[in-house]
Amino acid sequence: MDNTALFNLSYGVFLLATKLEGKVNACITNTCMQVAASPTRVAISVINTNLTCEMLKESGIFSLSMLDVTCPFETIKHFGMQSGHNVDKFAEIKYPEDKNGVPFMDTHTCAVLSCHVVSSQDLGSHTLFIAEIDDAFNLSKEAPMIYAYYQSDVKPKPEKKAEDKKIVGWRCKICGYYHDEPELPKDFECPLCGHPAEDFEPVYEN
Ligand code: FE
Question: Ligand 1 centroid to 136 CA: how many Å?
């Protein structure tokens, strides 16, 4: 089986936020799709080790901000490449709240969904949440950012490293997992966060 075939599936780029007992957290996710029309239901899939996932299992409410093509990498990095377990992502950011009291992003965002969870299923690495929409509105007129566009036009290209140092391992830029081998297979997936080989950076010998 060639797992890289899965890279051809289409995804978006979203800010997924939730609120539990006054505490807010959010992460970047690429997985949301409408799965029913009557009632209107969406499905999202969230990595189990994410604080947002842990909180969402209890709160049952979330906002999904659909990022548009103007969203800078720094914003995606702020919410997507550090964990709410270690940092308060909203310490210096004040976003408006939706009708459920959950913050949503009102810049670089083309539309927002406010949802409540109606069922969920643990899929191992991720939990699948089925949700009904409580509110939906448009913001910018920009095109939604799709994941392929994020990869090609938003995410910085890796810097050229000095060739004279030997690679001893690879580190996941998303969760910090260390792969203690000089080779990283192209179809490798992080055992902790599920991100693909392209989200790993080489670790050089000292
Ligand atoms: Fe990882």
Answer: 32
Q: Which protein residues have a CB closer than 5 Å to ligand 1 (ion)? A: 172, 174-175, 177, 190, 192-193
* Pairing of the two strands 126-138 and 109-122: antiparallel
**Tens digits of residue pLDDT in 32-55:** 999 999 999 999 999 999 999 999
Q: Is 1 a residue whose pLDDT tops 80?
A: yes
pTM above 0.70, yes or no: yes
Q: How many CB atoms lie within 10 A of CB 168?
A: 13
DSSP codes of every residue in 46-112: EETTSHHHHHHHHH-EEEEEEEBTT--HHHHHHHHSS-TTT--TTTT----B-TTS-B---SSEEEE
Ligand 1 center from residue 47 Cα (angstroms): 10
Q: Which residues pair with 116 in a beta bridge?
A: 61, 132
